[in-house]
User: Which sequence fits this backbone?
């Protein structure tokens, strides 16, 4: 796909870890190659010209040279730095979760420009949004749709009848909503309330309008989060570490919010 010894790309830094005394291995998400693992040599040196352009969650334009095992970043220039995210512990924790999901639902060298665009959109929203949870719920549903895991929220998975308000159930195992008559198909599927189902449908099909909603009951928020996270964990066959980190951080911050 990339036969040149040196090539240009842009990408968002989603993950990184140190290598040796001064280098760093970065996992990028790029518009033309999907996930891309590269080495930034000398990045951790004080005088490195690349360091500020390859911070976590930064979107940069890169010149990359082919390497034997990993390609090597030779030049980097910031396009968007998302600094307000990195300077805020809660916002950065949400971005870690977003990054984990992007990397978990995609693959190396498999391009998805819509996923790249989605990642940029959610990072921009997380810079300034007040309701960070709602932003991430919209992201989860959009990502699931783009990667082939879109949950069925409008018709019963078993009988294909239009879902009506009532005691419906949400089955992570089967992939969406079951009507009351078909709930025996997955006895472990928890019920889903009418308000939670309505929110999920709107986030799936018209997230921009839904994100402008001024207020949503805490119980509905929690139910939507529970449904989507159960769905994600089922399909990944694992619970992202960042999911637990984010939950603990929110619990720690709740007493502070209540006292202000």
Assistant:
């Amino acid at each position: 796909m990339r036969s040149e010894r040196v090539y240009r790309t842009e990408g968002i830094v989603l993950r990184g870890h140190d290598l040796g005394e001064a280098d760093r291995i970065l996992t990028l998400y790029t518009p033309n190659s999907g996930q891309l693992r590269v080495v930034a040599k000398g990045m951790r040196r004080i005088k490195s010209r690349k360091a500020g352009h390859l911070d976590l969650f930064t979107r940069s334009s890169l010149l990359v040279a082919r390497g034997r095992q990993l390609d090597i970043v030779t030049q980097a220039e910031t396009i968007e730095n998302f600094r307000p995210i990195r300077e805020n512990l809660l916002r950065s924790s949400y971005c870690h979760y977003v990054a984990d999901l992007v990397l978990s639902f995609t693959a190396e060298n498999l391009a998805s420009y819509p996923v790249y665009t989605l990642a940029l959109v959610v990072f921009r929203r997380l810079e300034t949004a007040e309701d960070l949870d709602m932003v991430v719920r919209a992201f989860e549903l959009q990502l699931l749709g783009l990667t082939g895991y879109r949950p069925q929220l409008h018709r019963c998975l078993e009988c294909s009848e239009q879902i009506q308000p009532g005691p419906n159930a949400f089955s992570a195992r089967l992939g969406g909503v079951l009507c009351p008559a078909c709930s025996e198909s997955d006895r472990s599927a928890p019920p889903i309330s009418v308000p939670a189902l309505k929110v999920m449908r709107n986030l799936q099909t018209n997230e921009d309008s839904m994100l402008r909603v001024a207020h949503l009951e805490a119980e509905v928020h929690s139910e939507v989060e529970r449904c989507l996270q159960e769905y994600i964990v089922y399909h990944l066959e694992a619970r992202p570490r960042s999911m637990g980190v984010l939950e603990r951080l929110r619990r720690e911050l709740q007493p502070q919010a209540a006292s202000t």
Strands lie at 6-19, 23-30, 34-40, 59-65, 71-80, 168-171, 176-178, 191-192. The CA atoms of residues 54 and 98 lie 18 Å apart. The helical segments are 83-86, 89-104, 113-128, 132-146, 194-205, 207-210, 218-236, 241-259.
